[in-house]
Structure formats: C-alpha cells, structure tokens
Protein 1
Amino acid sequence: MFKRENLPAEASIFAVFVGIAVLFEVLGWAFVGKSFLGNVQRLEIIILQVSIFGIIAVGVTQVIITSGIDLSGGAVLALSAMVAASFAQSVDAFAPIFPQFLGLPIIIPIAVGLAVGAACGWINGAITAYTGIPPFIATLGMLVTARAVAVIYTKGQPVYSLSDSFTAIGSGAWPVLVFFVVAVIFHLILKHTVYGKHTYAIGSNEKAARVAGINVRRHKIMVYTIAGALSGLAGVVMCSRATIAQSGMGTMYELDAISAVVIGGTSLFGGRGRISGTVIGVCILGVITSGFTFLRIDFYYQEIVKGMIIVGAVMLDQRRQAKQRSRA
Amino acid sequence: MNNQDDIILRTENLTKRYGGVHALEEANFTLKKGEHVAIVGDNGAGKSTFVRQITGVEQPTSGDIFFEGKRVEFSSPLEAREAGIESVFQDLALCNDLDVPSNLFLGREELLFKFGPFSILDEKKMMQKAKAVLERTAIKIPNLSNHVGDMSGGQRQCVAISRSASFASKLIIMDEPTAALGVQETTQVENIIRGLKEQGVPLILISHNLRQVFNLVDKIWVFRRGRIVGEVIAAETDGNEIVSMITGMQGGVHEKASYI
C-alpha cells in the first residue's frame, strides 16, 4: 500500500489541476458541445498567458518562503518594460525617447530591464531588512511608486516602434521557454544551494538562522533583489511580445503571482514551498481563466472563483501549520 | 592547580543591572579546561542573566570576561559562537521546516562546489556526518530527512545538543536541557553530556534538578539574589548543603524537599 505521506507535496496540487481541467472538459461537452482540452491552440494560449506572471511568481515564491511578501511585481514589470523599451526602439522610430540610442543590440534593453527590476527589488529588500517596516508596506509603497515613475518616465506616452530583433524574444513560444528555464533554475537553486537552504531557514525561524551565523539582512535583500529582477525580466518579455510598452502593463499581476504561489502550496508563514508547486499553481490559474472564457461565463464570476480558491488554499495551509504546532 | 593556562573561562566582578534591578552583582566565576560545572539557584537568582552576559545575548553593565586567557566583549551571540562558546537555548533555536542535517549544519554547510551564495550543498556528506553524530548520542531518529518540527521534544533537544556537540566548540552551555523531557529522553541527553566529559569539552549546566546535577558535574556554583554564594565540589557536598545555600537558610529541613 502506498501512503499519502510518501507522495511528493506537489501530487495533491497536481490532482487539483487535473480535476479542474477535467471539470471544464465535462462542462464543455455539456454546455458548449466542444472539447476544452482537445483544442491545442487554446492550450497554447493558456500557457502563453500565464508565462508572464509565472516569471514573477518564481521570485515571489522565494520571498514568501522567507515569510515575506512582494506586492510590487506588476508595477515593477511596467516600469522595467518602459525603461527597457526606451532602449529597444528601432532606427526608424517616430519621435523616439532617446534619439541617440536607436537600434542597439538587444542585450542592452534586456540588461536595462533586469537592472531596473533588480534595483526596485533591492530597495524593497533594504527597506524590509533595515527599517523593520513590514514587507507588505514596503512593497505596497513600491507598487504605487514604480507605477507612477513608469508614467512620468515618458509623460504617460507608450513606447513603440521596438526593433524587430527585440520583439523576436517575445514571439512564438519564447515567453514559455523563458518561464520554464527560470522556474527550473530556481527550483534547483532553492533545493541544492546554500542560498536556498538559508532562504528556508530564515522563513522557518529567523532567530535561529541569525544565531547560526546567517547574515539575515543581506540574504533578505538578495531574495527581494532576485524577485525584482524576475519582475524586470517579465517586463522585458511582455513588452517584446506586445511590441509596445505602456505604463498600465501588468496591473494586478502581483496578485495573480501571489495566488499562484499560495495555491502551489507555499506557506504564507514561511519556511515551506517549492517552485514546482508554484508552476502548477500558475497553470491552475491559467486553466481557470481560459475555462471560464471557453464557457462564456462573465469575467467577474471568474474572479470570484479565483478568490475562493486562494482563501481555500490559505485555510488549508493554516490547518497544516496548526497540526504541526500541536505535535511539536 | 590555578594555573592561568588551565582556565578556559573567567569572569571578574561581572555585574548586570536592569535599571534599578541588580540582576547580577560582581560575579567571579572560573571554569577549567575539561571541567563540567552546574549553576544552581532559585528563580531570579541570576543564573540566566549570568549566561546571557557570557554568550553575548546581553552586554554586562560592568566587569570583565576572559575566554582562553583573553579579555572578550561579545556584542552578539554570533560573536560568542565564533569564539567557540556554543549554547543550547531553552527554546532550542531549530528551524522546524528543515530536516536534521540541515539544522545540524545550518550556517556551516558542507559544499560540493563553491560559488558564493549559490554554492552547491553536499547533501550526502552532511547526511552521513549527521548519522555519525547522532549514532554517538544513541538517540533514535527513524528518518533524518523528516522535518525537525515533526519530531518529539526529546528528539528535537538531542538535535539541538548534537549541533553544539558536533562542532569543535570550546565551551558548551546548556540551559535546562531536560526540563521538558520524559524519563527516557532525559537519560539520552545525560548520556550526551557524559560523552562530552569524556571528550574533554567543558560544560556549564543550568538545572533545577539537583539529582541530575550531582550525577553529572564536578563542581556546583550556587547563585542567590544575583550573587555567587558558593562554589563546591560535587563529591564533597550533599543536597542539603546545596539547598541551604540556594535558600540562604540553615538546618537539615530539606530531606523531604521534592527537588532533591
């Protein structure tokens, strides 16, 4: 006999994912007379849609494991996209932001986007680590500020006429590939490196981590910086896919990312969670969005269901924590 | 035998005041290499205050601490730890969401490949070493890959103590290590302490359990109202004398006291 405890933690989340997909398949035949999963194009759209906030979720997972939170993902995405795009305009761009920087090699806008994101993340981390301001407030401040700076940067104008070589990195399956590679890399880093071990340790018992000689402040700043850089990467991928950058991009993406992380089994109390779970959480959100559209159900009902799933996931987590506390 | 080289820890007029409260008054304490001593005293006698000063958790109001012959000023527990003073705290300071090897090696992981914070962990080596360390302590933990948070109080205590014991520490301090443990677990912890004695690792034990104190240590330091009131060789005294010193009252009325 196999025991439930012997299964990987992701097994139950994956079962939920499969359950939801099958449910939509059944509902599809019943109400629309079509297959939900049988449509390859739809599956492609699902995975493309989720890839962008999925990249943010990989960073948010690490932040939440340290028992922190990052609300700034969507806004940092927008700011990074705006700044990156301003360095990615083609030589024939009309009214460019920087007429002297046109047709640059794509490595420059990519690096700029990552750097802007990393800088925002660094500020989040430094405020959290050095001032004792809760990460909820620090990153909420960044959410508002980064979005505002994104607007001011071009006085509200979108950035377009992006060079072909830059828009190529958002075309086809590239966003999915970027998400997948980022997820695999950080899954392995969390599992097998000192960085990962200390991330879990800080989230599990910050005082014990400090006594054990871990530089908790420096580590937290590193985690938030990585999360910021990943939001920046998401911004680069998104504006390259859209072939335009706008200050309103990625609104509410931070909440989708946090939802995916929580649904994926990462504990808001810190110390527990895995990127593999987050990837499944991202897919669950994607299937729900797509499924509701497929069934032609109003967008707001979809939000209600998402909200309930998130609350349910946190309730499960709380029960798990309470069980552990009573045993210890 | 009061040779300077023989002494690992010495305090001189160590004093700690919290506002007007004199928690510790001019404590003069010495610990020799390889010696196991107990600190006993009533609640509020200054035992824990004393330990907090020598482990860097707090900084003394006045007085000096000498460790290995050198005057030291620890501004944090980490500094004390780096100097070689390991403490097992009452609240254990374990990471509940990590397994046993991760807890044992936290902050000093074995590495397979060095690359700054992204150095790759040598999980196999840490697991083997953890097994070896716990084998020596004879504690039974069925699966070391389980989270420490899912283990019993005794197992957790043994992990915490093994962590201190498994690194070449120069002094181990244990604050009530068996207070929350069952009979069998207490025996196991006591065996670990005896093992440290054999290895020549000096130990300061804070305990309310006088029987345990007599069983384990060479010398007993008695604290009362923030002062050191006595320093007696365990083999040359008995429970009655110690209790008299703890309470400050004479007379053999303590035979039926349940804490002996």
Protein 2
Amino acid sequence: MNRTLAGLHYSESHEWVRTEGNIAIIGITDFAQHALGNLSYVDMPEVDDEVTAGEEFGAVESVKAANDLYSPVTGKVLEINSELEDAPERLNVDPYANWIIKVEMSDPSEIDGLMDEAAYIAFCEKE
Amino acid sequence: MIDNMEDNLLKTCLHEWHIAHGAQMEPFAGYDMPIRYTSITDEHNAVRTAAGMFDVSHMGEISVSGPDAEKFINHVFSNDVSEMPDGKILYGMLLNPQGGVVDDLLVYKEFSPNRYLLVVNAANIAKDFGWLLSEERGFQVETRNESHKWGQIAIQGPSAVKAVTDILRLDAAASLPFYNYCEMKWNGRRLIVSRTGYTGEDGFELYSSEDDTADMWDTLYEAGVVPCGLGSRDTLRFEAGLPLYGHELAEDITPLEAGLGMFVRMDKPDFIGRSALMAQKAAGLSRRLVGIELDDRAVARAGYQVEADGGAAGIVTTGYHSITLDKSICMALLETPFAVQGTRVGIHIRKKVFPGTVCGKRFYQPRYRKQTSFS
C-alpha cells in the first residue's frame, strides 16, 4: 500500500517533488496520506512567502493530529493549490495528482539531496 | 527498543485480535490500544448510522462493599447514592478538597445489599484506588481493585439493540432503561449488561471475564458489527459534548467550571470538595467550558490558546474537524466574560489566529429516545 511514481524526488519526511526547470512542485506521498488517514485541512503558506529546505512550510490536519509539512527545497512560493482549501480529501484520493505548493528554487542543486523512487521505496520499508 | 517499549505497556484480552486485524496501535493510559482498524471517519460513521464495538477492557472496576458502603461512597462521590435502586447507575466524580476532579466515573448499585461497582478511567485506576483506601478510615467498607478480572465491550449506535438481541441473544437488554444494568450469563458465567455509553448514541457496555469478552467480540465480529478504535471513541464523545478526563476534567478543573453541576449534589450532607464548590459558587465562576465553532477548516487542538478583545481568553481542551457536522469545532475553558454564546474569539493555530464563535458544547444532539425507569 505504498504507491510511488517514477521521475519524482522524495524526502525523508514523505514529500514528493516534481521539477519543471527551476520550479519545484511539492506534494505528499501515498505513504504519508495512508499513515495520516483522512485529511480535513491543509495549512498552506502565502504566495511570495520564503520556504527553506528542511523547514516547516505548512501542515496537514488528520482527524487525530496536525502534521507539519517540510519543504524539500529553498525558494519563494509561486502558487498554492487553492482547491485543497475546500477539498483536502483530494490528497487522500490521489496524492500525486494533487500538489500543495509550487516553489521557485533558489538552489536547484538541493534536488540532488533527495531520494529517487527506488531509494524512497527502500526507505519506506524501513519506516 | 521497540520491543522494550511494548513490554512496558499493558494489554487487554483482545490485544492479539487487534494486532491480527491490522489495527493501528498506540499507547493510551498505559495500555497498547487500537486507535483505528480502517479509518476513524468510517468507524465514527458506523456508530452514528448503524453500530460499532469498542474494546474498553482497559477501564477500571473497583468494588466497594460493607455496612457503610453507601455512606462511604456519598463521602467521596459528588452524586447521591442514597436509596439507589439495585441495577441503577449514576455518573459523577471523585473530588479533591479543592473541588477539582480526581476522576469521573460510573457507580453501579449491585443486586445485593451494600455492594457497589465503580467504573473508572484506565489512566486513573491506581490513583482512584489509592484515594479510596486513604479515605476509608472510620467506614466499615472493603474496597477492591477488580480491574484485572474484567473485560469490557461497548456496543454503540442506533443498531446496538439489534446487535445485542439478534446476535448475542441478550433479549432482556432491549427493555433495559438508560443508566440501568442487568445481570445475565454468557457461557454460564457472570455478564453485566449496562445501558450506558460514551458516544452520544444508544448502546450497551458489556462486562464479563476476559475469556467471555473475547468470545462475545468474535461472535459480534462474525455477525458484521464494525470494530472501532479509540480514535472514533474520542471523536464521538467529543461531538456529544461528553468530557474526557485530562482534557475537560482534571485535578485543577472543577465540575462547575466543566458545566457538570447537575452531577454534584450540593444538597446532600458533606462530601469531599463540597465546601470548596460552595465557595466557588458563591464567588462566581472565573472560567467555564464552552464550545467554539471556527469559521475556517483549521483544527483547534488541546492546549491551543484562545484570545478575545486582544487579550488571553482561555485554552482549548479538545478539538476536531467534526465528522458528523463537517465543520471545525472545539471545547475550551474560557474566562467567564467571554464564555457567552455568540462571543467572537481567535484561536492560535500554529502561526496564525483563526476566528470562531462561542457556542454550546453539545455539538451533536443525541437522536435516540432515552428510555428512563419512569417511562
């Protein structure tokens, strides 16, 4: 029960990143949404906010708890997925089709520090 | 390391069943307990629309007997057990001398003279038992911690009656009035069937030996009753405005502040905490437990700060995105001037302040008709 996609980059805190040039599109993985259960709220930053690799940029609320989201990259928030404001359950239905924020990366080499699909699958098996 | 952690936790008689059925387990009150089997939302909805069953074997049972049993319980218990008919159950609290709550509990008047069964919170078993023993002096009573002897299943929901009659064949349970119990048999052994619960739905709590509890659980499961974890137990009790010890009740929160004055019988002779509560009543309450409905979907969790008029107004005790009502709500202890329905407040959630409105704390109104002993 841990669906992954090839071509994405993965963090140890279970965010995924897809890159388009120097833009990072960030979401949470299938592993994360399974572990969290039904989501009721996604707390997102504002457009133009700065996010830092490894630091919290928002949170997802499941029934039981709030869980911080950590940015895999450093940069400026270009866009937030406002569809999630009223329909956070989209992250449960398809966590890869529903991104959370788009970030203009200030240091695209940070992507190299993330895991590829195979490494992430192995990482999840140990979790 | 994980093995060591698990070794320190107590297990109920259904522990192996929970593991075998893929429950997400977490420590609760010193026990390794199931939080959910599938999803909290699905389990919650099963109880609101049909029936669900909970392993609540972790709850504590303390028997009090002896010639002074009634007098002793009236000394330590906020409600009045005088002339309680056999088979009747009362909710109330053990209070400390400051009027704070040692624990909230149910008192069962057993079907023999001078015998009571106290059902207490799992986290407080040792504390309550010690408290009772320390207060026993001068009373002819015997207090025994029987928690290890009992397993307990809660069956809750609009189909609970059907489950206990059609599946368990406990036909007498159907006519049991709310907050009453009867003695029945399972495999020839003692079974307590109690018309009580903690969900805002009709239902029963079944107390039996650990073996019989496991046997009844299997029987109910095979017949299709949905197993529910402590996750949904909490979301259900919260919507119904029922307090949870450690959140809405504590050693430094009085039942008056928690809005549970109807379970404190100030008119009975002296009991522990009475004079403190009389004084609190006379002086006026400085804070009260209320509900708050948030404008947004963000969830106010226990411990979050509440502000009003630009200053501190209180603290959140429990909060969820309500599954039944599909909105974000919480209970909070607010300074009295703000504890008024309609008051606009702000709740600090992470780095932001989310607006909300003070409301009643019974978010979900039970739909079942409470059959009383008088109806």
